[in-house]
Structure prediction request, 786 residues.
Amino acid sequence: MTLIQEKVQQAIGILQEKQIDLWLTFVRETSAVPDPVLPLIYGATLTWTSALLLSRSGRRIAIVGRYEAETASRTGAYDEVIGYDQSIRSDLLRTLDLLAPQQIAVNTSASDPAADGLTHGMYQILSGYLEGTPHAGKLIPAEAIIAALRGRKTPAEVERVRRAVETTAEIYRRTFQYMRPGQTERELSDFMHRQMEEMNVTEAWDYDNCPAVNSGPDSPVGHAAPTDLLLQRGHLVHFDFGVRQEDYCSDIQRMVYLLRPGEKEPPAEVRKGFETVVRAIQEAARFLRPGMKGAEVDEIARGIVTAAGYPEYQYATGHQLGRSAHDGGALLGPRWERYGNSPDMLVEAGQIYTLEPGLLVPGYGYVGLEEDVLVTENGAQFLIAPQMELIII
Amino acid sequence: MTLIQEKVQQAIGILQEKQIDLWLTFVRETSAVPDPVLPLIYGATLTWTSALLLSRSGRRIAIVGRYEAETASRTGAYDEVIGYDQSIRSDLLRTLDLLAPQQIAVNTSASDPAADGLTHGMYQILSGYLEGTPHAGKLIPAEAIIAALRGRKTPAEVERVRRAVETTAEIYRRTFQYMRPGQTERELSDFMHRQMEEMNVTEAWDYDNCPAVNSGPDSPVGHAAPTDLLLQRGHLVHFDFGVRQEDYCSDIQRMVYLLRPGEKEPPAEVRKGFETVVRAIQEAARFLRPGMKGAEVDEIARGIVTAAGYPEYQYATGHQLGRSAHDGGALLGPRWERYGNSPDMLVEAGQIYTLEPGLLVPGYGYVGLEEDVLVTENGAQFLIAPQMELIII
Prediction:
């Protein structure tokens, strides 16, 4: 069974569990305007206005432009493929009449970008089609379906993420052997880009900022590209890096300290900062398990950082990982407006999260680690060994 | 000046021309849910909810998550960059109060996918923010702005498309030297993929269907992947192929006929089909000029094909080409429901269109050619020499 077929089958189980009659993915020109669910349930682009319908009763129907009907059939995930010529309207309405759903879930969400692939223009077209039919007023958000489908990784998906994570670890190993004071942030980034090419993987987010490399206290931290700043002794060097391998992503942060002449170990404030971040990750991982709310996990890590006297970090402790480095759904984050309801969504087995608290050590630089963990029925499992000691060069 | 800076400046000119006070691009997690205008006016992903505001008065303001403020500044395209922490709402409303626009154009369109990047969830969030403020009810579609901005290529953009087109022509040349009866469609596709790699370009649409290769009357034509069908003498072989080079695309169809033993030239019905398609393209190109409606150009090509006794093709005669192989905006297409108002939009100088009529020659296969042309004040200009004769092997 292909991954697509596996996920479509999983989706039907989720519709049954959530008692939703029909899930409709309504898209067009997805090479320009992709819906993030398509790689999960279709695996190709759709050019003309197209409808993928999955029903609680197990029906799997694709209505697509005639020239894409063959591709739709070849997915092996849809048992009925309807190819149309001039307008999708009549085939879509006829199919809805046959299915007679109580609700039609569509890909819209205020909180979860990964469940918000339906454009406003397409929403208006669909609403226009349904106006004056028995299906008007049936549209509901599919966010719970999509969060479950993206979040609950099948074993094959977990293995793909694991391989991406292992490749990332290998690139980090090579980088730590290569790096030394006097290089620039950009040189390190170029080196890592060459390793990606050699290992035949691509970047997990914007190429220019993947990796992010921050050396010392003057480097702009965040989603900014590496600069010509020099690595100097007495600097903390922070990396944020991930790869995409077989369509799945990793997202890992690592920390190095460059000893000053005469130093045997990093200064006390550097050690304190690093150990605080390690502790926040370990405690969050120890608590992370199915049934918790994301905000509860966030509080644990955030509380350890602030209790140690650091200002709280201005982002979530962790996000899900999968097809995208930021994979949507439940978030291990605080209840801030910009996160919508995602911090109140439940942690479930099969989800993969990052854990990535951070803090600043004045005069030395930024300390951030990021580990990737799989949620199992028995708690969180690190996908590779987490960084427990500063790498010293 | 970078391409981004050039396009942002062009956008302000378009706001003045169209007398629209403000254009607001409102996005989040664009690595998962990209808005197709971002590559034109920003050039990086945006993670947190972000607002790019361009005003008729020339203001260029980016409100982004604090961690992405540095990247926003480095675009050099925005003279004010506001980095926020917990919610964009207050910075956005304060900025709107300062600008006091009469209308706020947002990226939504029923007809033009490339102008429909605003998701329904984000539209609802924005409407919620504006409710009860003086800005409620000011939202209008930005489709005319986006169509003009994407469509009117700057000289630097035209050069990029031209280079992609030339690379495509070179890959075709190599393929025609390589191909012979007994190969499969898939072998030809593999060969072309190797040339892409060698020339360091990527596919213009789905890798599996780029190129499409159709040999003979039994091959499924459309957006389907090449099969294990054998190239045989007496087959028409049809290619549809494009590359992405420096972020800009080509999209070209080519035709080959495989002579049967004893044949000196293709059979009369094959020649008639090919010549009809050539004539339809040449006539459409001769008429294509600024100020026409797309549907008028479509009628010319379509009319030549039907007047020659073939059924009309079930797609548009031509679409725009640029950042995407299907670049949105005005369409050289019939007034069918699925095309919305795009066939009624005007042809403008600086646009690049495909011309791609097609027809079936029973017993031999599909005949489709596709040429890429630039609209100038004086009419259409082929970006490379069009195919005027069947390639004979």
Summary: Chain A has a mean pLDDT of 96.
